[in-house]
Write a structure and sequence with these properties.
The complex is a heterodimer.
Chain A (H helix, E strand, L loop, with lengths): L3 E4 L2 E4 L5 E7 L5 E7 L6 E8 L2 E4 L7 E2 L9 E3 L8 E8 L10 E2 L3 E5 L1
Parallel strand pairs in A: 2-11
Antiparallel strand pairs in A: 1-3, 3-8, 4-5, 4-9, 5-6, 7-8, 9-10, 9-11
Chain B lengths: L2 E4 L3 E5 L4 E8 L5 E7 L6 E7 L4 E4 L2 E6 L4 E6 L8 E8 L8 E3 L3 E6 L1
The chains are: A mainly beta, B mainly beta.
Chain lengths: 115, 114
């Protein structure tokens, strides 16, 4: 079944730790995205990729980094977690040829808490 | 900068009634506008897309209208059910830092009471 998977679903981690949020999709989509969402607030684009070896920063400045070595995999890394990084992180993908015309497929998200 | 406003943070209606949610935008003319449903603790789920040259689109109990003059989209759920309770997000394609990627509104939380 075509889908997009994020792990872990929940993560509580101490300040200063390095973390990687995983995102994989089985649909063969070229375009992938990371959004950050705080409770009751809109999604903010923090990173996106148009394909392998392509990564760009989004509208919201983020201290995280991403990589795209394989089409299906788009992990997000925080080198040194801080309490200000506490948020929900949502990964999404879409077909490159149509941009967002068929909608984005989102994962279930990772709820990150930095203590 | 582009701005999206959804009419209210919360909307409470009775089962069987029609729910109408509003999305207004400024400082942009999007090529298309999308609606998503988001349940607590989950990622958004794509519902409908409407293009700038389309006035209306329907899918089962859902209807979306798009008025580019008013810069407004209306999202209707007819014969609403308690299972329709969720947050509904409006999104449009953006420029600038978004490079055509989607920009989302804060959403309207819909509660359908039995």
């Amino acid at each position: 079944e075509a889908d997009i998977y994020q792990t872990p679903r929940y993560l509580v981690i101490g300040t200063g730790k390095k973390i990687t949020l995983e995102c994989s999709q089985t649909m063969g989509h070229d375009k992938m995205y990371w959004y950050q969402q705080d409770p009751g607030m809109e999604l903010h684009l923090i990173h996106y990729s148009y394909g392998v070896n392509s990564t760009e920063k989004g509208d919201l400045s983020s201290e995280s980094t991403v990589s795209r070595i394989r089409t299906e995999h788009f992990p997000l890394t925080l080198e040194s977690a801080r309490p200000s990084h506490t948020s929900q992180y949502l990964c999404a993908s879409s077909e490159a040829g149509t941009g967002g015309l068929d909608g984005y497929t989102f994962g279930s998200g990772t709820r990150l808490t930095v203590v | 900068s582009q701005k999206i406003e959804q009419n209210s943070e919360a909307l409470n209606i009775q089962e069987g009634k029609t729910a109408t949610l509003t999305c207004n935008y400024t400082n942009y003319s999007p090529a298309y506008l999308q609606w998503y449903r988001q349940d607590p603790g989950r990622g958004p789920v794509f519902l409908l897309l409407i293009r700038e040259n389309e006035k209306e689109k329907r899918k089962e109990r859902l209807k979306v209208t798009f008025d580019t003059t008013l810069k407004q989209s209306l999202f209707h759920i007819t014969a609403s059910q308690p299972a329709d309770s969720a947050t509904y997000l409006c999104a449009l394609d953006g420029f600038g830092g978004s490079q055509g990627n989607l920009i989302f509104g804060k959403g309207t939380k819909l509660s359908v009471k039995p």
